[in-house]
Amino acid sequence: MKTTLAPVGAYRARLDPAATAQVWFEPGRPHEAMAVLDAPLADGEALVAVELSTICGSDVHTVRGDRPTPVPTVLGHESVGRIVAVGTDAVDVDGAALRPGDRVVWSVTVSCGTCGRCERGIPQKCTSLRKYGHEKIQPGWQLNGGFATHVHVRAGTAIVKVAEGVPAEALAPVSCGVATAWAAIRAIEQTVDLEDATLLVTGAGLIGLVATAIATDKDATVIVSDPDAARRARAIRFGARAVYDPRGVDHSAARAAAAHPSRSRHRGGEIPGGLTATLAAARRDQVDAVVEASGSLSAVGEALDVVGVGGVVALVGSVFSAGAVPLDPERVVRGLVTVRGVHNYTSDDLRDAVRYVEHAWRRIPLYELTGATLPLSRVDDAFALAARGQHVRVGVDPRA
Hints:
Residues 207-356 form the Alcohol dehydrogenase-like C-terminal domain. By secondary structure, the protein is of the alpha/beta class.
């Protein structure tokens, strides 16, 4: 692949051979390949050759027709790649210059940096926000999603250099679920010190699994709830002290579960009887914090019901309209309960999540989260496989 720069207004990165993007139009219609000959790079922008992209659950929901998105579009927002061209003054999150050859991941969002929300430290809610894999193809920004050989990374995107040798399978999901899990744990730590705390994670998908690993590394006792047996078993590998199936379980006694703890401390595994029995077996007197990562209304209700005095609930999974849950305001007030909504993340979250993966991937099976990888030309087959749910992530490799 030969890349040249020519000044045509902005620097125009010309590709030989052309970049290829898989374009999505509507449910039931196969992706169509689109050739892109060049990308105009303004100041602070970069053109990245994709090493690997992974299919997020939101991508599956879009293709299935469950969530709207502007079309035609290039889906995909979880990627790792290598810079092949840069505009002037392109820098990473720490202000270091970006150069061709740098291996990078980048945020799902493009933010202006100057609006009131950006200045308040919530750039993921920028008033002029754009998102990779969520935008209509437009002149000058055709390569705006991860299911392509190249992505045009715009100014206002958090870009983080990543180490060589870390598997792409561990790095690609960082720019969505992993960084969001980091943001959720950071939100909890603003209220609760996780050292020796009890954390309940509801939902053992990518966010829940990574939150489990991070919190365990911070010396929390993590309990994971998920109705799927395979996902519960995987959670134990990610550090959960105990797991349970939430279906048909009465949680009303959970706050008093450890009044008579067992003499032997539970060392990891599945406990019948739900959260009450699990707390007792782990010799914990209350749930200090909850990461709700499933989006299930019953799980949200459980989180609000079982969190203990002075505790915090981080709601992460409710990214679609699913109705309302009952809330007892007296319990929130008397229990000094904090409820936090977490959606996407900041540039600091992305950088810190990358550093965590770089140091943890050898001892925590992060790379196994991408359970299968197909070529870019078979992106429809990759989506069909992802929809079956047997893998946490399915990879799409444009180099294959």
